[in-house]
Specification:
Layout lengths: L1 H10 L3 E5 L3 H14 L3 E3 L3 H8 L11 E7 L4 H13 L5 E5 L4 H9 L4 E4 H16 L4
Helix pairs in contact: 2-6, 3-4
């Protein structure tokens, strides 16, 4: 029975989406996810996030979204994505990260429902574990 449960869990399809202005940092997220075998796709605006959430066919990876990573350097645009995903399904975990000195936007992310809010350094240090957890892999 345990083997069947393990196999069933392994076949569940998932995808993380991420919103990040900084191309180098976005590449770090994508490459770490690829190394770990965690499917992910970028989202830059509400239309793209809506397409990911509603699984609009575009010829690319199109699995159910199981987490959103938001770079708070996007400011209000990033917070709007947080609002959008929580309105779609409040159970989808959101990890928001930003500069440790940007306390105002970090606090705003907490107030608007981000499940995990952290400084960029902590996010970077824990990125593999964050991706595994959001992607459904064993940590």
């Amino acid at each position: 029975m345990i083997l069947l449960e393990s196999h069933a869990a392994a076949t569940i399809r998932r995808m993380i989406t991420y919103a990040c202005q900084d191309l180098i940092f976005a590449t770090k997220i994508r490459s770490t996810a690829e190394t770990l075998g965690v499917p992910c796709r970028p989202t830059r605006d509400p239309a793209a996030l809506g397409n990911r959430l509603n699984r609009v066919e575009d010829g690319k990876l199109n699995e159910p979204v199981t987490g959103l990573l938001i770079d708070l350097e996007m400011g209000e645009a990033g917070l709007a994505l947080l609002d959008q995903i929580k309105a779609f399904d409040a159970k989808i975990p959101v990890v928001a990260f930003g500069a440790h000195v940007a306390t105002e936007v970090l606090d705003a992310a907490r107030e608007r429902g981000a499940d995990f809010v952290m400084a960029r350094g902590m996010f970077t240090a824990n990125l593999p574990d964050i991706l595994k957890r959001l992607g459904g892999a064993a940590v």
